[in-house]
Amino acid sequence: MDVKIDKSWKNLLQDEFDKPYFEQLTNFVKDEYAKNTCYPKGNQIFEAFNLCSFDNLKIVIIGQDPYHGVGQAHGLCFSVNEGIAHPPSLINIFKEIETDLNIPYPKSGNLERWAKQGVLLLNATLTVRAHNAGSHQNKGWEQFTDAVISKISEKKENIVFLLWGGFAKKKGIKINKNKHCILTCGHPSPLSANRGYWFGNKHFSKTNNYLKNNNLLEITW
Questions:
Q1: Which helix (H) or strand (E) holds 38?
Q2: Which of 44, 75, 172, 190 sits at a 20 to 30 Å CA gap from 10?
Q3: Cβ atoms 66, 39 nearer than 8 A
Q4: CB 112 within 8 A of CB 41
């Protein structure tokens, strides 16, 4: 696995890339991609970092692992390629934005537009085998993304972390609450959302209010 990642992140994370666990992870991923269909494409594994540089970072959204259906995953959590049907969680995200900010439901489920404004759309696990959810968990990715979150917490200030669901909330222990904004709620999946744990969280307006209050440019969701 050739780590093709934005220079600002490479400088920050080089010590992780040099650790033994990352070498083992690299070997696992190379083997999986050689023997099986895996997502996202190899050149998109670090796409979240390449579209949102460390210098431009304002917001972190944490997902679990990539979509495992054909043509869906492209390296950004909750996001799908152009022309792909919106998965249920993404539908609920857009519905919440609709009611929270009175923004029309978008045609495209591609969230590159967010990433380019400073939103890091980070899956805890960056790869997956086709049609096999969670197949690349516990191989080292979680250690790597924990390190990413810790370094963001340490090196930056006034970052908004959106932690949706129990899995993302566990990642929150890496974040310094005194210098960052942490917003939590249930996962946008139908199971959680239909029980009342998602809709009405107003995370998108709250995020923009926090950015505005800290003299930062708001996100066009």
A1: strand 38-39
A2: 172
A3: yes
A4: no
Q: Determine the Cα–Cα distance for residues 187 and 99; give it in Å rounded to an integer.
A: 17
Q: What 3-state class would DSSP assign to 63? A: strand
CB 191 within 8 A of CB 199: no
Cα separation, 49 vs 121, in Å, equals: 8
- Report, as residue numbers or ranges, the catalytic residues: 65
Phi and psi of 59, rounded to 5°? -135, 145
Cα 28 off chain centre by:
22
| Residue pair 182/59 in contact by the 8 Å Cβ criterion | no
Please state the pTM of the whole predicted model.
0.96
Let me know: does 66 contact 78? Beta carbons within 8 Å: no
Helix (H, G, I), strand (E, B) or coil at 39: strand
User: Is 110 within 8 Å of 82 (Cβ atoms)?
Assistant: yes
Q: What pLDDT digit, counting tens, does each position of 138-195 carry?
A: 999 999 999 999 999 999 999 999 999 988 999 999 899 999 999 999 999 998 988 8
160 pairs with which residues across the strands?
59, 181
User: What are the distances in angstroms from CA 174 to CA 58, 161, 168, 206?
Assistant: 17, 11, 11, 22
